[in-house]
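idk why but the lab printer keeps eating my pages so im just putting this in chat instead. protein + xanthosine-5'-monophosphate:
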Amino acid sequence: MDTNKRPDSMERITTVQLAQDFIQEQVAALQAQIGDKKVLLALSGGVDSSVVAALLIKAVGKQLVCVHVNHGLMRKGESEQVIEVFGKELDANLIYVDASDRFLDLLSGVSDPEQKRKIIGNEFIQVFNEEAGKLCGISFLAQGTIYPDIIESNGVKAHHNVGGLPEDMQFELVEPLKLLYKDEVRLVGDVLGLPHNMVYRQPFPGPGLGVRCLGAITRDRLNALREADAILREEFDNSGLSAHVWQYFVAVPDFRSVGVKDGKRYEGWPAIIRAVNTVDAMTATVEEIPYSLLHKITDRITAEVDGINRVLYDLTPKPIGTIEWE
Ligand code: XMP
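predcted complex ->
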């Protein structure tokens, strides 16, 4: 039997009861597979790895070792949330690695987008390997593979994912979500008690803000991007738009324009807002945002974020524009 094929008879998980049944079955299967051995998981804080973590914590508790690598390209508050939810609330065995300086030093002066992605992917593997090497007695590697990853293994996600993990690792794989679609993963995460904003969060590229801090990344521009993005997310939450818009974010290009602040010439970067709706990320339409909200976001970003002096709204559908800027 092909264990990577979802059986036709498998019911779509659409209710709390079905999610509970799935969790119960998986917990038993994971306990049988893992026994008293240890499992390692790279926990990014994204939906898939978070749900795998919660499921494994329920099944084997502290036999799960989660490693969260902060590559310095996370959105505001994301690593903190991983520590809060998994380290504190779920009392997981969590290793937090702040590798920001390593990544940002390597990325310094690199402007080519593919080169940036490669550096981030390779360094992620390097850091994760170093942490794995420090641990003893790990037998299993858990992964947040979901069914679309299997179906589209030559598609967008495989190409985009941060590196993937090294093939020479001597671990048996644990992939409890590999037959589930995204909506099912979210429901299971919800029923496992993960925070709503973690389970329903928008897609976020593996290389994180690295692909939105356009051109060669600098720490000051990256910070400006992170703060502007946090304001955008807060305003979308407050206005209810976050429930209707599939993906929204800020990109900050590597040039400045002139402006005026407090009566003086003020050179700053523009913050470019992108907000799109899509079904499969292959095509996308631009969301109509009320002008009053755009004005509010503009006022806040230009007043609160050091280094930004203009706000632009990207009206380009996909195609012709891709969703990300690089
Ligand atoms: P594009 O920019 O190709 O993006 O229209 C389509 C979807 O893929 C996401 N994306 C990435 N995801 N690593 C990822 O894991 C990446 O390098 C990457 N680049 C784009 C993008 O955010 C959108 O949801």
